[in-house]
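To: structure desk
From: M.T.
Subject: fold request, one chain
Message: Could you run this one when you get a chance? Sequence is below, nothing fancy, just the single chain.
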Amino acid sequence: MEPQYPFREEIELHGHIIDSLILPRIFDTIMDLGGDFQVLHFEVGKRKEEISHARMRVLAHTQEQLDQILAQLQNLGAQLVHTEDVRTEPAPRDGALPPDFYSTTNLPTEVRIHGRWVPVEPIEMDVAIVVDWEKGTATTKPMLEVKRGEQVAVGHQGIRVRPIERARKGEIFSFMQSTVSSEKPKKLVINEVAREMKAIKARGGKILVVAGPAIIHSGAGPYLATLIRAGYVDVLFGGNAIAVHDVEWALFGTSLGVNLESGLPVEGGHRHHMRAINVIRNAGSLREAVEQGLLTRGVMYEAIRKGITVVLAGSIRDDGPLPEVITDVVEAQRAMRAALPGVELVLMISSMLHSIATGNMLPATVKTVAVDINPAVVTKLVDRGSWQAVGLVTDAELFLRELTAALGLESVR
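Reply: Done. Structure tokens follow.
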């Protein structure tokens, strides 16, 4: 006997749903969650620039199962055929949400307000949607920022998500997640990244670098400093460590007590990072150290001289920390979010935790390059939900050296 599916809903799909693999993912999602489907209408675009249309009925055993399936299908771009305005409920208290709140993806999203589809801004994953019915606007807010009584989107009614479709012409930022490998042709990919960086700067876009301390340890600091000096970095995210070891190199020529020219440990070098912190704290800040002529080279020096936005988010293990490090993680998140508007490309280099944090704040439309010597880190970064990501398994020095060369820049020392 065939199973009975008393709960059902009709959905529609529009776009390049075949070559972007959206349709098979829809089918797989329904079946993986124990439901079934009936295809009611299917029209395939006859040319590559033409879109396809599909209408189907989703079947489920229970309303709860149907809601779960529809929530997943919406993330893939499915739209309910019979839809009404978005449902909202008031936040029960500051920093808390209604039980059935809608948790966002990093994809372009719209909600239906008074019969009109309104874009949700800014796009960020794993946050709530707060609707202002009087103004007709929808805004994303982290749970902690939501105030009691604000109208929060709940359920799946009146919400639609637009998936990122495969580019009509080949490019490196299209469905590269599944090809994270140490055998990827790095030079070709780096050349494409360089071309993208030039194009972004030519149209006035912004580039963000999320930097880990391995950049300094590997001797790649001068290459990152060169990118900043040449105007290819608009925003820099990192932690206390990247700044401390950059200053240690600038003052003593070492990183973690190892001479970066010879690769040999220096007598008493294990104290250099603490001495570096002390120099900056006595000066008052990194900026004051530059102004006083104490800090004359390095990543932080070039960033301060160039006037780019730098956000250093602290952690429990930090020595010092440096005065500019934001030790309140909530304040650090706010500072990072405030720096993201206008960013079109992110280079995540050898910093898993800061990179994942940044990735969770980014819309899927922001192109991302994840670089780490550990393939597990690259896989984790690329699999976090970004639709436009390239993963490179390589060390920071090789990547930044090749990128600097591809941009036609001469490294500063």
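Reply (cont.): Residues 186-202 form the longest helix (17 residues). Let me know if you need anything else for the meeting.
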